[in-house]
Amino acid sequence: MTPFSDDQIETALTGLPGWSQEGEAIVKSYEFADFDAAIAFINRASGCINELDHHPEWTNVYNRVDIRLLSHDAGGVTNRDVQLARILERLAAAS
Ligand SMILES: C[C@H](O)[C@H](O)[C@H]1CNC2=NC(N)=NC(=O)C2=N1
């Protein structure tokens, strides 16, 4: 699968506030009320991630979850990353 070009990524990101391109990935840092809220977000997201069979690179420090999305098999951003970013946006907004 061919990854998105920089232009395609830029277009996709117009609908994803707070997301930006970083090298071959798209990234966003979410901040929650506290550690429990951050972990609840991760747990809620895990179901959707399994369904999609597409996995984020993410780290948690206290109330923050830093997320990096790319399609490892394609070596860059694909529609699967954009789809996952949209899902994470919805889940984070409901936190
Ligand atoms: C077989 C299975 O579809 C693959 O290993 C999936 C799993 N989740 C994945 N997630 C991500 N981000 N990139 C991949 O290439 C990928 N591959």
Describe the protein in words:
43% of the residues lie in helices and 22% in strands. With 95 residues, the protein is α+β, with helices and mostly antiparallel strands. It has one domain (25-93): Transcriptional coactivator/pterin dehydratase (Gyrase A, domain 2). It has a 4-stranded antiparallel beta sheet with strand order 1-2-4-3. The model has no long low-confidence stretch (mean pLDDT 97). The ligand C[C@H](O)[C@H](O)[C@H]1CNC2=NC(N)=NC(=O)C2=N1 binds next to loops. The ligand C[C@H](O)[C@H](O)[C@H]1CNC2=NC(N)=NC(=O)C2=N1 binds at residues 53-55, 71-73. This is Putative pterin-4-alpha-carbinolamine dehydratase.
The domain tally reads 1
What is the share of helical residues? 40-55%
Q: Tell me the CATH topology.
A: Gyrase A, domain 2
Mean pLDDT over the residues: 97
Fourth CATH level, the homologous superfamily:
Transcriptional coactivator/pterin dehydratase
Q: Structural class from helices and strands?
A: alpha+beta
Multimeric status of the protein: single chain
Radius of gyration: 13 Å
Strand residue percentage: 15-25%
Please tell me the CATH architecture by its name. 2-Layer Sandwich
* Strand segment count: 4
Shape: globular
Number of discrete helical segments: 3
CATH top level? Alpha Beta
Low-confidence stretches: none
Largest sheet composition: 4 strands, antiparallel
